[in-house]
Amino acid sequence: EYLKRDEYNPFLHKAWYLMAKAQYMNGDFLGAATTFHYITRHFTWLDDLVTESKLWEARCYCGEGWLSEAENILVRIKPDDLRSKEQKMLYNLAYADYHVKNKQGKEAIPFVAESARRSKGGQKTRLNFLLGQLYAADGQRELAYKAFADAGSASNATYRTKFNARIKQSEVFTGANVEKE
User: What SS3 class is residue 26?
Assistant: First the structure.
């Protein structure tokens, strides 16, 4: 099995993975998908890397709007196969992205909620804001109010984010005393 490998350098997979993530972050979703696909084909003995690459590949397809390709990848990855926190986070983000792009807000809510719970920093703020939007669209005004409050109260949130979150809170307010609002 070792002799059948295409790559023998024990660190080369890290370079490929870093390059693919850089392509994704740069908005080159098609290039990133190709690189992640290369990783899944040429580093088959690294199970965790292959799983993460498949999840990133699905996110790339969502970025391109190729939802059926993303779904084909996502349905083959079982939650029990995820071994690390990073893989679980990436799995939730990929499914959230898939459902949001597919205009299935209600189905996206559990994945966005779990991602927001596990996130840190600016990503947590963005996910809470998105979660508030999804709750509001689904008619769950109390949960939307709380999600917007979480997005606006983050210490790293910009003034603009706090301002917009507060406005969105006012839109979904369900209480009787509107004096504070």
Answer: coil
Residue 129: partners with Cβ closer than 8 Å, 6 or more residues away = 147, 148, 151, 161, 164, 165, 168
In contact, 23 and 35? CB cutoff 8 Å: yes
pTM of the model: 0.87
Eight-class DSSP state of 59: H
Taking CB atoms within 8 Å and a gap of at least 24, the contacts of 3-10 are 5/45, 6/42, 7/42, 7/43
Helices (H) and strands (E) in the chain, counts: 9, 0
* DSSP-assigned letter for residue 8: -
**CA 57 vs CA 90, 127, 142: distances in Å:** 11, 21, 35
Class of residue 87 by CB neighbours under 10 A (exposed 0-12, middle 13-18, buried 19+): middle
Nearest to 146 by CA among 128, 164, 121, 124: 128
Q: CA-CA distance, 34 to 172, in Å (whole number)? A: 42
Each residue of 130-177: pLDDT tens digit?
Answer: 999 999 999 999 999 999 999 998 888 899 999 999 999 999 998 777
Distances (CA, A) of 161 to 37, 116, 123, 140: 36, 16, 12, 21
φ/ψ of 144, rounded to 5, equals -65, -45
